[in-house]
Design brief:
single chain; mainly beta; about 40% strand; 2 helices; eleven-stranded parallel β-sheet
Length: about 325
């Protein structure tokens, strides 16, 4: 065999080896599967990820970690699609990025405009038990993160997404903690029923700051400011404790019968400081501070003061 032919065979061998390497999941030494832009474009991150490019399809339970930013080509492309239960995605300080830019105008029924809006999600969880941790999801045409019941979002900055920053369906028992949701076209955080929502910041979102409309939620230690509707919205049988709601266009806090609202500060909102829905029975509130809310301090439903509230400087 001639030297030229040998060199050509060697070159072809290297190409084949590279293709095979890209087609096999990249495992870190701790067994976590690593994902970056090159891996996404190559495909084969899991057995179900049969098409190169986006979305990356995660079809097997386990732990996955970004080792670089992921950038989708347009507002209608989803970055990561989850089809298996019990998946953990560590963004590892990196970002999932799209082209959508949201701007807070402060006017109109929805004071945030997002262009271009689309159907792409940063992480689209279609199975329960998803955990998303430690990074940023910015500029998606639709939701930044969307998940089913029994899921968790922690330490994530969701910003400038065309619909919700974090969107959960009305499944149960989601945990959403220590996130920042800002400048999203709809709700900053949509939690679903039976959720625990704690230590988050939701600001400058187009509709609600925190939407836990499924009821039976624990909402504690959050800050919701300058959102287009209620700062915090929940339903019956919820516990709402030690939150701050300021300058939202709707009520600072809205909840339903059987709820307990305690230790919150609700000021300068366009609606009431605290509002209750009609129906669902009485609800109690105590140790709250309400100030300068356009619609009044407390109203709606069947609220029962348990004492030690302050309404515009007067015990109420």
């Amino acid at each position: 065999m001639g030297k030229h032919c040998e060199q050509r065979l060697i070159s072809l061998g290297w190409v084949c080896a590279l293709i095979l390497a890209l087609a096999v999941p990249a495992y870190a030494v701790d067994g976590v599967i690593e994902i970056n832009q090159a891996r996404a474009l190559a495909g084969g991150v899991t057995l179900g990820d049969t098409t190169p490019g986006f979305p990356v399809t995660i079809s097997q339970p386990g732990s996955y970690r970004l080792t670089g930013n992921l950038t989708v080509p347009n507002e209608n492309t989803t970055a990561i699609q989850i089809t298996a239960e019990n998946v953990t995605i560590d963004l590892n300080g990196f970002a999932i990025l799209g082209p959508t830019v949201c701007t807070y105008t402060g006017v109109g029924a929805i004071p945030v405009t997002c262009m271009p809006a689309g159907t792409g999600r940063g992480i689209d969880g279609t199975a329960a038990g998803l955990a998303v941790l430690n990074g940023t999801v910015r500029g998606m045409g639709a939701a930044g993160i969307f998940f089913q019941g029994g899921s968790r979002a922690e330490g994530v900055h969701v910003v400038s997404n065309g619909s919700s920053g974090i969107g959960g369906n009305y499944g149960s028992s989601n945990l959403i903690t220590h996130n920042i949701a800002e400048l999203n076209g709809e709700a900053g955080i949509q939690a679903g029923g039976g959720a625990t929502v704690s230590q988050n910041v939701a600001a400058y979102n187009g509709i609600r700051g925190i939407d836990a409309g499924g009821g039976e939620c624990t909402i504690i230690g959050n800050t919701a400011t300058l959102n287009g509707s209620e700062g915090i919205y929940s339903n019956n049988l919820s516990t709402i404790t030690n939150n701050t709601t300021v300058a939202n266009k709707g009520d600072g806090i809205f909840t339903g019968g059987g709820s307990l609202v305690q230790g919150n500060q609700s000021s300068a909102n366009g609606g009431r400081g605290l509002a209750f829905s009609f129906g669902g029975g009485a609800a109690g509130y105590t140790h709250n501070v309400f100030a300068s809310n356009t619609g009044g301090s407390v109203g709606g439903g069947a609220p029962v003061s348990l004492g030690q509230n302050l309404c515009n400087g007067v015990v109420c």
